[in-house]
Amino acid sequence: MSAPGPGRAARAALPAVLAVDGGNSKTDVALVATDGSVLAQVRGAGVPLRLSGETVRLLAGLAQQAARAAGLSATGVIAQHLVACMANVDLPEEERQLDQMLRAHGWSHSVDVANDTLAVLRAGLDGRLPAGLPGGPAAALAGGAGLDGPPPRWGVAITCGAGINGVGVAPDGRSTRYLALGTLTGDWGGGQGLAKNVMWWAARAEDGRGPQTLLREAVTAHYRVAQVRDVAIGIHLGTIAAESLHALVPVLFEVCGQGDQVARDLVDRLADEVCIMSLAAIRRLGLTEAAVPVVLGGGVLTARDPVLTTRIAAGLAAGAAGAIMRIVDVPPIAGAALLGLDHVGAPASAQGRLRSQYLSAAAGSSS
């Protein structure tokens, strides 16, 4: 006979949610109380490209840091429910594997693992969802409302940070996703991809293989070098970190705003790709006649570049008249935490409190 589980009082004394947003460039972990208060949040490195023991070691270290920051023991059960929304966990078998690995550590009484796109989708949808729906975060997003809740919540989310990915959830719980394994699976875009395209055009402008573009001067000014080739050689030799290329995305937007045609073409292509992914998901789910929320997340999209945002809005309107574009105003870790609050049946006020804390933090960081 198995040992009895913890009593109701013991469970209630624990934080409600251990939330994880594992991205390519960073990983956030938060402990959240049932009333929506963020008890602690810590940040670490991005998750490995492939699921392994290294992934869990990263999460273990961050979970322990969060527990200590919240004044809890860093060993044993530290939350009622764990939600891990992860980049680079793209296949169902990978989700199941990580689920088993996290359960084995015993940090929570229950576990949900999902792709990080679901955190973006939940972050962009307001209102209370029912607790404890079977089928994990996607089913919870699509499920019917609780007695005191609003209508069902569902939609499409596109996230564009270091990479690009998307997910769609229908009102009946059906979902659709992309493999998001790069060029092999038809992907284009993301911060790293855009930055490489900036370098590609700048290099060709410098050596005469392509048209002149202000990107050439912008790249050299950003890196404070004489020529674009100096950046390429520095990355090749390791004297310039390849990760630093991501900082060329704001440079691209700035040059686009100056009327440079090469930069504009890149921004337009990204906007079109976001629309293509969104509309394909809407068609797959048979929602072309519905008022579908399309949530945009990730640093590239939440930068709210006017050229990019305007073109996306126009493309969505042309392809699905009912599409409602939303740009998330809270980070993905908030979406993961909201999924956890849904699961444990936290009151509606908890979701508002959680959002207000993250909105306040965002306002403070931008002031």
What does this structure look like?
The chain has 367 residues and is an alpha/beta fold. The strands form two sheets. It has a five-stranded mixed sheet, sandwiched between helices. It is 47% helix and 17% strand. A hairpin with a 5-residue loop joins strand 7 (164-169) and strand 8. It starts with 7 loop residues before the first helix and ends with a helix.
Q: Strand percentage, roughly?
A: 15-25%
Biggest sheet: strands, sense, closure?
Answer: 5 strands, mixed
Helix coverage percent of residues?
40-55%
Q: Which overall shape is indicated by the principal axes computed on the Cα atoms?
A: globular
Describe this protein with a few key phrases.
367 residues, globular, five-stranded mixed beta sheet, 47% helix, alpha/beta
Question: Summed up, what is this model?
Answer:
The chain contains 14 helices and 10 strands. The chain has 367 residues and is an alpha/beta fold.
Give a topology summary.
Elements lengths: L7 H6 L3 E6 L3 E7 L5 E8 L7 H17 L9 E8 L5 H14 L2 E8 H8 L12 H7 L12 E6 L3 E6 L5 E3 L13 H17 L6 H10 L4 H10 L10 H10 L3 H24 L8 E5 L1 H4 L3 H14 L4 E4 L4 H13 L3 H19 L1
Parallel strand pairs: 1-4, 4-5, 6-9, 9-10
Antiparallel strand pairs: 1-2, 2-3, 6-7, 7-8
Helix pairs in contact: 4-13, 6-7, 6-10, 7-9, 9-10, 10-12, 13-14
